């Protein structure tokens, strides 16, 4: 059998912050360490506010690779003919403009979460991506982890019955009283606060376990409720609790979700309760490495418990990069695992929770509104 010649997929990187660093480090991990033989990743160019900052990033993160171009503007990355796809790691409130510019340049887009400020911006980007015939995906990296794929398989194969209740929390203590009000987690102009910064993760697990379940028939939640506790420093949320009810199809289930920037993580981070058992997923819920499955008897007591542990080289961002490369190779414009519909659902839920919680962006931050 002939050896597969892997696709070399070339990335342009927008921003040089911490999340971009983590993503690029994973692009440089040998794909064979995760049994990937059909794709290899190449960083073609990096854009920052100055050539010097971009070059410093390349030197620090990519070992000074001389083949990577350092640009002092994002526009030069969009225009780079050696780039297949753009990774956007800027703050949330810049995503719409950055993604639209990349789309108009004919580049495929992987944009960090939350993908936009609101659902209207996202709808506009999806229209633009279709007009320019490019792939577009929100960087919900957890969806592509091997652990997630196994959780989904077990959740849907039937032994546990239907899911009934999801509890998911992501908290992280940002020490908000000892950081500047301009810090991204506190600044409303950067989409600060718990919901938009870390809320995508508890919501992701509800979407995976409930929205994606075959018994739900891709039905949207029938009810969304949300409550926010604002910080005393800026008008962003220090913690948010929100719930979803799914009852429009065969599935009758709820999710109780929370996020906080003043608390430490809980263990387990996610609990999915089924008719005949429970899946408990360890923290951190954005990159869990293990989960337990409890199988219940007729009396509701635990008859059997199994533990699954997953290890891999790298931080886990490379799995979403593999997905983008394969979709582009196969001429797909969205991923079947995390398609436009799920990002639209996410943003619609966040819009409603923000409305109920009274979270409003400063004037001019939202580039598209209803």
UniProtKB/TrEMBL annotation:
Which species is this record about? Galerina marginata (strain CBS 339.88)
Q: Give GO terms: molecular function aspect only.
A: D-xylose 1-dehydrogenase (NADP+) activity; nucleotide binding
Database matches in Pfam families: GFO_IDH_MocA (PF01408), GFO_IDH_MocA_C3 (PF22725)
SUPFAM superfamilies referenced in this protein's UniProt entry, alphabetically: Glyceraldehyde-3-phosphate dehydrogenase-like, C-terminal domain (SSF55347), NAD(P)-binding Rossmann-fold domains (SSF51735)
Phylogenetic placement of the source organism: Eukaryota, Fungi, Dikarya, Basidiomycota, Agaricomycotina
Q: What is its EC number?
A: 1.1.1.179
Report the residue ranges that make up the Gfo/Idh/MocA-like oxidoreductase N-terminal domain in this protein: 9-137
Keywords from the named record: Oxidoreductase
Record's protein name: D-xylose 1-dehydrogenase (NADP(+), D-xylono-1,5-lactone-forming)
């Amino acid at each position: 059998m002939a050896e597969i010649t892997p696709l070399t997929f070339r990335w342009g990187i927008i921003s040089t912050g911490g999340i971009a660093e983590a993503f690029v480090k994973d692009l440089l991990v040998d794909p064979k360490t995760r049994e990937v033989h059909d794709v290899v990743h190449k960083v073609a160019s990096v854009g920052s506010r100055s050539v010097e900052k971009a070059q410093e990033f390349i030197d620090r993160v990519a070992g000074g690779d001389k083949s990577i171009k350092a640009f002092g503007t994002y526009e030069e990355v969009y225009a780079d003919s050696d780039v297949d796809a753009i990774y956007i790691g800027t703050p949330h409130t810049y995503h719409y403009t950055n993604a639209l510019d990349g789309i108009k340049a004919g580049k495929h887009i992987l944009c960090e979460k939350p993908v936009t400020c609101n659902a209207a911006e996202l709808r506009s980007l999806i229209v633009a991506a279709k007009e320019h015939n490019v792939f577009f995906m929100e960087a919900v990296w957890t969806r592509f982890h091997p652990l997630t794929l196994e959780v989904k398989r077990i959740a849907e194969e039937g032994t546990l019955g239907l899911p009934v209740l999801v509890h998911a929390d992501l908290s992280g203590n940002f020490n908000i009283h000892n950081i500047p009000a301009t810090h991204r987690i506190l600044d409303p102009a950067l989409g600060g606060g718990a919901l938009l910064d870390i809320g995508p993760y508890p919501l992701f697990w509800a979407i995976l376990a409930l929205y994606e379940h075959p018994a739900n028939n891709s039905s949207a939640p029938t009810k969304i409720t949300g409550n926010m506790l604002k910080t005393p420093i800026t008008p962003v949320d220090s913690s948010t609790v929100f719930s979803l009810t799914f009852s429009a199809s065969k599935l009758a289930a709820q999710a109780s979700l929370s996020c906080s920037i003043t608390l430490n993580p809980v263990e387990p981070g996610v609990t999915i309760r089924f008719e005949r058992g429970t899946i408990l997923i360890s923290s951190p819920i954005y990159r869990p490495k293990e989960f337990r499955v409890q199988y219940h008897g007729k009396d509701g007591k635990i008859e059997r418990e199994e533990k699954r542990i997953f290890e891999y080289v790298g931080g886990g961002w490379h799995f979403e990069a593999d997905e983008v490369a394969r979709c582009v190779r196969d001429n797909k414009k969205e991923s079947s695992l995390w398609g436009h519909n799920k990002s639209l659902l996410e943003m619609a839920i966040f819009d409603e929770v923000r409305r109920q919680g009274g979270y409003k962006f400063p004037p001019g931050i939202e580039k598209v509104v209803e």
